[in-house]
Structures are given as structure tokens and as C-alpha cells.
């Protein structure tokens, strides 16, 4: 505990954000190359780093949207674990998020910790990965999300996230490292999907669709022309349509994880979520 008292918690600089991404990579979470940067754009004050003698030893992100916030990138350097740094930086982020309904997507082994911190399990999710056909696909209903009025995308995303993620989505659509597509039926959004490069292949998220067929068209459109198109999908395990699509594409289940909230779990249609945007 002596070391814990030396821990100095500061807001992360852009150099620190690189370090945070490297920590997530070491944990095998396969983050998108620029995910942390996009989340930080959504809430520039929401990244924290713990230093001992000026050297980073732990980190956490607490990103505020409108009334929902998320905790992510919660990691302590291996040699410094078990000395109270984790809980200290976690509580620092939770204080910052005071008043928000805080969401965490965490490994099931950590769920009891989060439950001790006041979170309640909303749903269990599955991660699937595998290589997807990257051949050309043409569908007249699919277009760049950037060509759709932004408010429509914002509202469609809010249907599945139960919050408006204005700055986050603006960053996600316009980072240049993320491909975002929409499936439009005249002026109505019937699906929305994004893909970004990650350590191993590509992360897909979000991917929302009114039908499994739309989800498949969007997914294949996102994957076309990508070399070595190994993808990762994360969706609620109750979404049997997602499971059927993943199995049709011969993806394999890697692990399960939980989504927990400090407040009420939002009432969203989990059966239309084919992948989340999680860390
Ligand atoms: C999880 C992790 C961040 C915890 O950090 P740590 O510094 O080792 O944890 P601490 O020393 O602060 O833990 C002190 C106590 O608080 C508990 N604790 C830690 N984080 C907590 C949290 N967020 N909420 C409630 N309790 C927590 C610990 O279980 C421990 O309890 P115990 O003494 O009864 O065993 C660290 O083990 C780690 O980096 N793991 C790998 C990355 C990872 O899995 N992150 C979580 C992703 S879901």
C-alpha cells in the first residue's frame, strides 16, 4: 500500500493515449487502431492515467455521452497489480462520471468487482471472429454514412444506445480510419455499420440492422476489398439472428463478456444489434 500513496492521477495527454492503446493491445483486447483517439474526442477530459514517479502504471477511460457514460481501458501494469492502484483510478473515473448512468463492458470474471462498485448486469454478449469474403458487393440501398443527414444517423444510433452520441459519432464517421455505411430505404435508415483496422484484422461496430439480411449486406459491403479481412463482432448473446449470421459466415465464438450499468439498463432492441462499439 505504500506504493499506492505515491500514485498521482492526471488527465491523459495525447502521448498517454498511445500508451493506453498499447496497454489494451497487451491485454489482447484487439482495440481499433484509433479507437481511443475517437473516444477521447467525444470527451477530451475523460481519460485518466496513474503515475508513479512520472511513469504510467495504470489507466482508465470514463467517457461521457449525454446521460450515459462508459468506463473502459481499465488496466494496471502487471508488476503493479494488487496494490490498490486499480480501485483508486477506477473510483477517480467514477467520481468524474457522477450523475451519469455508467456502462461497462467487462469480462465475466470481473463482473463481481463491478457489482461491488454498484453496477448491475444488463446482458451477456459474445465475441465472434473469423475471415470474411472480401469480394465486391453492390447494393443500391447502401451508401456512405457521411452522405446521410447526420441527425438521422444520430437518431438511429440512439435507438440502440439509448443516448445521443453526437461528438463520438461525428468522430467515428469522419476519422478517415473508419468506414461507415448506412442502408437507406428512401429517406429511412434501416441499418448502420462501421469497420476499423485493429491489431488483428478489423473491428466491426456499431452494426445495427432492421433485418439479418440488411446486416449481412452491410457487413459484406464493409469488408469488400479489405485485404486479410478477419473481423470481430460483439453482440448480445440473446441475439439469435446475430448468432445465425456469424455461423453462416463461419466465424467462431471467442469469449463472452457482460454489459453492466450503474442505473437502469436501457430498454433497447438487442435483437437488432449485430455489433457494439465497445473498447
Ligand atoms: C482489473 C485490474 C485493473 C485491477 O487492478 P489492481 O490494481 O490489480 O486492483 P487493486 O489492487 O486496486 O484491487 C484492490 C481490491 O479492489 C478490488 N477492485 C479492483 N477494481 C475494482 C472495481 N472496479 N470495482 C470494485 N472492486 C475493485 C479488487 O478485486 C481488490 O479486492 P480484494 O482485495 O478483495 O481482492 C488489474 O487486475 C488488471 O489490469 N487486469 C487486466 C486488465 C483487465 O482485465 N481489466 C478489467 C477489464 S474488464
UniProtKB/TrEMBL annotation:
Q: Which InterPro entries match?
A: Acyl/Acetyltrans_Enzymes, Acyl_CoA_acyltransferase, GNAT_dom, YitH/HolE_GNAT
Outline the extent of the N-acetyltransferase domain. 7-146
In terms of Pfam families, this protein maps to: Acetyltransf_1, Acetyltransf_18
Under CDD domains, the record lists: NAT_SF (cd04301)
GO molecular function annotation:
acyltransferase activity, transferring groups other than amino-acyl groups
Instruction: Supply the PANTHER family for this chain.
Output: SLL0310 PROTEIN
Q: What is this protein called?
A: N-acetyltransferase domain-containing protein
Amino acid at each position: 500500500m505504500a506504493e499506492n500513496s505515491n500514485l498521482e492521477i492526471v488527465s491523459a495527454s495525447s502521448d498517454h493515449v498511445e500508451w493506453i492503446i498499447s496497454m489494451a493491445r497487451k491485454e489482447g483486447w484487439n482495440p481499433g487502431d484509433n479507437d481511443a483517439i475517437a473516444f477521447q474526442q467525444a470527451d477530451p477530459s475523460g481519460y485518466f492515467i496513474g503515475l508513479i514517479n512520472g511513469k504510467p502504471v495504470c489507466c482508465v477511460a470514463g467517457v461521457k455521452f449525454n446521460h450515459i457514460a462508459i468506463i473502459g481501458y481499465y488496466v494496471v501494469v502487471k508488476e503493479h497489480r494488487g496494490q490498490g492502484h486499480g480501485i483508486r483510478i477506477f473510483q477517480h473515473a467514477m467520481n468524474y462520471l457522477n450523475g451519469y448512468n455508467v456502462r461497462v463492458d467487462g469480462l465475466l470474471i470481473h463482473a463481481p468487482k463491478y457489482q461491488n462498485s454498484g453496477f448491475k448486469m444488463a446482458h451477456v454478449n459474445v465475441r465472434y471472429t473469423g475471415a470474411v469474403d472480401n469480394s465486391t458487393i453492390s447494393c443500391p440501398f447502401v451508401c456512405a454514412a457521411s452522405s446521410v443527414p447526420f441527425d438521422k444517423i444520430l437518431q438511429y444510433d440512439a435507438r440502440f444506445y439509448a443516448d445521443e452520441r453526437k461528438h463520438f459519432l461525428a468522430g467515428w464517421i469522419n476519422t478517415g480510419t473508419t468506414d461507415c455505411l448506412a442502408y437507406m430505404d428512401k429517406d429511412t435508415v434501416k441499418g448502420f455499420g462501421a469497420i476499423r483496422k485493429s491489431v488483428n484484422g478489423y473491428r466491426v461496430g456499431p452494426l445495427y440492422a432492421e433485418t439479418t439480411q440488411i446486416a449481412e449486406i452491410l457487413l459484406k459491403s464493409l469488408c469488400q476489398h479489405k485485404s486479410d479481412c478477419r473481423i470481430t463482432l460483439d453482440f448480445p448473446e440473446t441475439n439469435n439472428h446475430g448468432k445465425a449470421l456469424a455461423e453462416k459466415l463461419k466465424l467462431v465464438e471467442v469469449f463472452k463478456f457482460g454489459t453492466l450499468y450503474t442505473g437502469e439498463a436501457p430498454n433497447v432492441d438487442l435483437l437488432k444489434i449485430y455489433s457494439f462499439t465497445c473498447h
